Please model this.
Amino acid sequence: MAQSKSETERKYTAPAADDIPWLSDLTGVEPVAALADQGVQDLDAVYYDTADLRLARSSATLRRRTGGTDAGWHLKLPRGGDTREEVQVPLSEEIPDELRELVLSRTRGAPLRPVVRIRSTRSVRDLLDADGGTLAELSLDSVRADSLLDQGGHAVWTEMEVELAHGDPALLDAIEEALARKGIDRAESPSKLARALTETAPAGTVAREPGPVEDPATAGGQVCAYLREQARTLVDLDPAVRRGTPDAVHRMRVACRRLRSTLRSYRSVLDRAATDPLRAELKWLAGELGAERDQEVLDERLDRAVRELPAELVLGPVAARLTAWDAAQRADAHRRTLDALASPRYTALLERLAELTSRPPLRAKAARSPGKVMTRTLEKEYERLRRSMAPALELPPGPDRDTAIHQARKAAKRLRYAAEVARPALGGTARWLGRRVKAVQQVSGDHHDGVVARDALRRLGIAAQAAGEPGFTWGLLHGQERAAAGVREEQLPGVWKRARRSRPGGAHR
Model:
C-alpha cells in the first residue's frame, strides 16, 4: 500500500572528500546542538520516464531504488519551492499500477521505460537539537549516473543534500548561510535526475519544459501564459484528486472552468476551430468532477444547518440520516470522478491541452498590445453579464428567477476569469473589477446553493417520512433556505450596482 510524505530539501555542490572539518561549524547554527554520524549507505536507483521525458519536464520523478532505509518505488511530485510530495510503494519488479495512475496526467498514457541509473554512496549525518531530536539530515553523496537511453553517456559528481526533518523551514536558510560562508553554493540542478539527464542524455534530448514562444508583451503572450498556468494546475492536481485529498476536486474543477472561460472570452486571440472542441471537453470534465464537488458543498451546508439548530428542534435521527445519505452520495460521486480520470476521453483531453499550450493557434490580434485587446474583451463579457442580470432582477421569485440568477452567476464567473487574465496588462483596473464581480458571483452562488439544498431537503424529508421518522426538522431547514434565498435576492441589486461602477473601458475611452 502506498504511503505519502512531504519532503523539503536543498541540494548543494560539495567537495569530493567525505571527512570535512567544517561540518562541526553547523552546531553554531541555532538550534542545531550536535551532529550524529549515521554511517554510509549504498543506493541504486533506476529512474523511469517516457521516451520524450514527460515526467522530468514536469518536475516529477519515478524511481525504483534498492539499498538504504527506504528501498521501494518512489514517486516525487512538486509542491512548490523546496518541497515535494513523495509517494512510496513497496519494492516490486514492475511499476505499481497505483503509481502509473498517479503520473497519467503527465505521461498522458505514453509508455514508461528506464531512462537513467543512478548509484550513490551516501554518508549521512543527523543535525540534532539540544534534546537529541533530529532537525534535519545532511547527506554527502558520491554519484555515478549512467544513461539507459540509446547513445547516452555517463557522469560522476559529488553533492550535498540537506533535508528537513521536524525543524522550522527557516532552519534551511540558516544552514545555507553557514554553507555559503564556506564557499558552498546551491546546486544548479534541482535533483540528481535533472543533472543526470543534462549530462548523460543523448544530444537533442530536452529534459525541461520548453519556454514560451510568444512575446510576453503581446495579448497572445499574456493569454497563453495564463492558459499554461491553469493547465499545469490541472495536471498537478490529478494525483490529489485520485487520492481523495481535501479540496482537490474543487480546485481541479475551477482550473477547468478558468481554461474553458479563457478560451471562450479570448476568441479574438485564439482560433476557435482549435479551441471550441477543447472547450467542450473541459465542460465534460468539469461536469464529471461537479458531482463530487457539489456533494461536498451540499453536505457542508446541511451539516452546518443541523448543528446550528437548537436541540429541541431536531426531531428524529436527523444527523444519522444525513450522514448515511452523504456517505452514499459521495461514494457514487467519487467513483464517477475516478471513472472519468481513467477514461480515454480524459487522456485525449490532456493531449489536446498539451498541444494547445505548446503550439497555441494564435490569430492576428494576438500580436497586438494587450491593453486594448483585453479591455475590449472585458467590455464584451460585461455586456453579457448585464444582459443576464436584467431578468434576474426583474422576474418575480420562483423557478424562473432561480434559473436567471444562476445564469447571471455563470456570466459573472466568465467576467471574473477574463479579468484575471487581464491583470498583468490592466493592473488595478482589472483587479478592482474582479473583486466587485466576485461579490456578485458569491451572492448569486449562495442563492443557487440554496436552491440545490431545498431540493435535497425535500427528498430527505420524504425519505424520513416513508421510514416513519418525523419530518418536522427537514421542513424547518427547507423554510430556512427559502428565507435565506429571499435575503440573497434582496442583496443582489446592491452588489450589482457596485460592480457596475467598475465597468471596464472607462480609462481607455
User: Anything to note?
Assistant: The two ends are 62 Å apart (CA to CA). The longest strand covers residues 34-49. The domain at 3-200 is CATH 2.40.320.10 (Hypothetical Protein Pfu-838710-001).
